[in-house]
Amino acid sequence: MEDFANFLSSSLMTWLVIQVCLTLIFLWYVRSYQQPLLSTPQLPKTAVILCLRGADPFLPNCLRSLLKQDYPEYDLKLIVDSLEDPAFKITQEVISETNATNYQITALRTVRHNCSLKCSALIQAISDLDDSYEVIALVDADTIVHTNWLKELVTPLTNEKIGLTTGNRWYIPTGKYWGSLVRYAGNVSTVVQMFLFQVPWGGSLAIKKQIIQQAELLETWGESFGDDMLLHKVVKKQGWQIKFIPSLLILNREESDLSSFLPSLKRLILCSRLYHPNWLALIGDIISSIIFPTLTLLLAIGLSFVTEWKLAISLFKAYSIYILGLLLLMLIMESGVREILRSQNQFTPQISINTILKMWIVIPFTQWIYGLAILSSLWISKTAWRGLTYRIKSPKDIRLIEYHPYQWLDQPIDPKISL
Asked: Whole-prediction pTM value?
């Protein structure tokens, strides 16, 4: 038992050191990244595609930000699930308010039953584009971008070696729901993982149209559930590079209670199992981040009951150092990302002592929730997304069981809670 306890303690400390190193690599990249000089005449014509089903809490802000980009030639292509969708009315109101002309609203014409509804919308939007568009930018309805977002996203694509650029989302730790805090804690780790594994985020990415055509991406989307994670293999297979742009870390102010967060977490993990480029490496990370700390805590509690105080105290000490180390990493990451957000004129509330205590409590809670979600994803065969149910047998065996238009009654009661 003593050998096992020492093994767990050593494993925790080793994994903490590894996480510190990986986080420092990410922060070094963020601080040292130099955005290339923007040459407006050289920027290619771009189509920005936004697929809508349901009215996300900050959809009006998202639309306004997309219609006010400092970019020479771009068009916003909006694919709305149906004309009775709540998002359609909101979209019309915002466009009328801004007097924008560089947009096109289209209802989804064909609901494909062997892929997700979002993939159906992407296929339609890209298929309708003429040959003048050289770059396709994808964005989500919960993404509120800054004025230079599209420039910063597309400019690196002028490099002949880079085929895809991407940012990532960042939440705030000061929400009123525990679900928001769990989501924040999990996302801190996810941002670093996605950077290291070069996993694109569909909420803010740009890809050369040439790649879409060469890789026959529309056919791939036509039998897929997720739209972004699979792009890693597609782009790399064609010999292109993927570039993460630090200035495109986008603040998300939406709230999430635990009841609404858990289904979205299970769906995210399911997509990772299906399309993550390094799923086995992710499993190794899960074992180190969830199983080892949980075993350490459980063994410490068990040894306390049988009065093995020396070993129990040693394990409690190792576990406490590990959790404290993760808390400090979260605060360091928060500090680094806030500099980026300030450059976007995005200001977030200061983190109070009370919030820091909540973050400390939520770390083990997050590990357990993620652990349970991962276990459940191993045998999951059905998942719900925006009110629709999908049967999933394999990455290319997807079935939309039944389609119905989104209704106002499907909206969350709290207007700030994400769908």
From this structure: 0.92
